[in-house]
Design a protein that fits this description.
- The chain is an alpha/beta fold.
- The protein has ten helices and six strands.
- Strand 4, helix 5 and strand 5 form a beta-alpha-beta unit.
- The C terminus is likely disordered.
Amino acid sequence: MRLVRLAADLGYESAWTNSGADAGAFDRCLRWHDASGLPVGISAVPASGRPAPFYAQHAQHLWDATNGRFTLVVGSGLLPRPAQAMRPYLTDLRQRLPAAMPLYVAALGPLMLGVAGELADGVALNWCTAEWIEWSRQTLVTAALAAGRPVPRVVEYVRTAVDPDAELARGRVAAAALRYALGMPACGGSRHRTALQTQRLSPRSAPRACRDRRASNSCGWRPGSIFRSCGSWWPDPVTSNQLAGSSRSAGRFADRGDLWKRSTCSCR
């Protein structure tokens, strides 16, 4: 709670959390909102983990409790044929949610972007270069216009680490990137790996030790291209020392070229 209140004092615009296939993230968002007054969001709940009525029930409660200051992002998780499966899932979920509540989709490739253009209010991207963001936006525009809908908003999910030690902070983000680059099941499997490879941000092979999550901090792979292409990191001695005292997994991040800006506080 201390960190979320500090984020509000520092001018952050909203507080976001990731989620498993349970109600924990919804409860966390409510506590954060009560403590800070910030709008809250979840990015993303896995569609493969629960049926739409489960998430709709908890989202409705959170929407009411925050006076309409909540955004829900849904990802396919481990659904087979995700673009095909997400159409009926999103349609069902949308019908169960308040009409004014924003429903976003976590998307990587052209098929899921097409689904988002047809059915979602926004799209949450992940591990993207500026060029990939622009391509995604154009794909989304085409899909939305074809469906006769407004173009969904585009936001980017960016993991950061705040620490006075720059190398330690970079190592933490590198460890998170590695799990996606290797296509680990908990990180979306091969879908993220394919997207990173398309952007030339993921190695096509990695040391065997890297496949052990316990060794991911020390196997020697460091995604420098992700840091250079997906965003700009800068030291802020005052802020980093304040935040480092509360958490190692929250921070400020601005994209390269300012194609988009998003203030987040993604912490537990």
